[in-house]
Specification:
There is one protein chain. The protein has 359 residues and is mainly beta. It has one domain (52-354): Glycosyl hydrolase domain, family 43 (Tachylectin-2, Chain A, 5 Propeller), CATH 2.115.10. The chain has helices at 5-12, 15-43, and strands at residues 44-45, 50-51, 57-60, 63-70, 73-79, 89-93, 102-112, 115-123, 134-140, 149-154, 170-178, 181-188, 201-209, 212-213, 218-221, 236-244, 247-254, 263-269, 280-287, 294-303, 310-317, 326-335, 341-342, 353-354. Strands 2, 20, 21, 22 and 23 form a 5-stranded antiparallel beta sheet that branches. Strands 11, 12, 13, 14 and 15 form a 5-stranded antiparallel beta sheet that branches. Strands 3-4-5-6 form a 4-stranded antiparallel beta sheet, with no helix packed on it. Strand 9 (134-140) and strand 10 (149-154) form a beta hairpin. The chain is globular.
Length: 359
């Protein structure tokens, strides 16, 4: 029988010395393992990254700007890290009178030229029922994204552009540029009603500039597919622009935001005229919950710091119970052979995710 060399070493080396060598060897293994684990921890993060809902990130000149509701107003943060958002600074507070005194929802920060614009939702009567929600826009006085901001008023989201009083219920407005033309896209009601238990659709309209809608609206999506329906109130909302390989997509949320079946659908611009409903091809669901992650929706998108990766930032429900107790999560995604996004499956809480490349 042949014994391993270590056994012969044990026979020839005094026991105390061998025990010391063994101890030092095991200690080095433990330290090495700890170093590996520490390095892994430094290079990864876990979801959720913070409490909140309706996450918005705008990437500009090496920084990530986030925009969120703060008190009865809007705040902005800045960071060079996608996984660690900066300190929120309130840049606008709702007035005490007017159409936008309360119910501030889902603000978005955008830059056009040297000015910054914030698109947001608000209502003239705080609290529910949420039947007075309209879309408005703020503009920075100068080039600083932290303001100060001027309130440019309500955007027209109705069917009779010559009569401002006919403006319709509208939330989640976002700008879309196609071939040098600017459009507004949002979620709205077909008619104003006295109940917020009303189905929502995706609309589009021309913009003369970043603060003026210049045409009547056109409906480009309704909750009609099997994966968009089946709940107490079918919704299309939260449209977000995503581009890849000369393709333009609108990734939107559907089903009910307060229930576990909230999910994402996709509209792809396949025609030349965005104002033509036939120019949009619907696919879905493109991102949906699992038994571990519930009610995924209202997303935004960003590149990794080095520009090599694409990331989706979204919110999800903390439990399966009805309600709006949500947190914010993020994960990388890839692209299919046809150029459309492949968001994969929501990563469960606590599972390590490699940090964005370059962070």
């Amino acid at each position: 029988m042949t014994f391993p060399r270590s056994f012969h070493l044990f026979l020839t080396v005094p026991y105390r010395e061998y025990r010391t060598q063994l101890y030092l060897f095991l200690l080095s293994c433990v330290l090495a393992l700890g170093a590996i684990q520490d390095t892994t921890a430094q290079n990864t993060f876990v979801n959720p990254i913070k409490d909140g809902a309706d996450p918005w990130i705008y990437q500009n000149n090496g920084f990530y700007y986030t925009c969120a509701v703060s008190g009865n107003g809007i705040a902005i943060s800045r960071s060079d890290k996608l996984t660690q958002w900066g300190e929120m600074t309130q840049v606008w507070k709702a007035p005490t009178t007017g159409w936008n005194i309360g119910n501030i929802w889902a603000p978005e920060l955008h830059r056009f030229g040297d000015r910054w614009y914030i698109y947001y939702t608000a209502g003239k009567i705080p609290g529910s029922p949420f039947i007075h929600q309209r879309s408005g826009v703020l503009r920075s006085a100068g080039t600083d994204p932290f303001g100060p901001y001027e309130d440019l008023g309500m955007l027209y989201t109705g069917d009779d552009i010559g009569n401002p009083e006919t403006v319709k219920w509208a939330i989640d407005l976002t700008p879309l540029e196609v071939d040098g033309n600017l459009y507004a896209v949002w979620s709205g009601w077909e008619e104003n009603r006295n109940t917020d238990k009303t189905s929502q659709h995706i609309y589009i309209a021309h913009m003369a500039n970043p603060f003026t809608i210049s045409s009547n609206r056109i409906k480009i999506s309704s909750p009609e597919e099997a994966w968009e329906t089946g709940g107490p109130l079918d919704l299309n909302e939260g449209p977000q622009v995503l581009r890849h390989q000369n393709k333009t997509f609108l990734i939107y949320s559907t089903r009910e935001s307060w229930l576990k079946d909230y999910r994402l659908g996709q509209l792809e611009l396949v025609g030349k005229e965005p104002m033509n409903p036939a120019s949009w091809k619907k696919t879905g669901p493109v991102f949906t919950g699992t038994k571990h992650v519930h009610g995924v929706g209202h997303c935004s998108f960003a590149k990794s710091p080095d520009g090599t990766e694409d990331w989706i930032i979204y919110h999800s429900k903390k439990t399966t119970q009805p309600g709006w107790d949500r947190d914010i999560r993020m994960q990388p995604f890839t692209w299919k052979a046809d150029g459309s996004p492949d968001f994969g499956v929501p990563v469960p809480v606590g599972k390590p995710i490699q940090k964005p490349s370059g962070e």
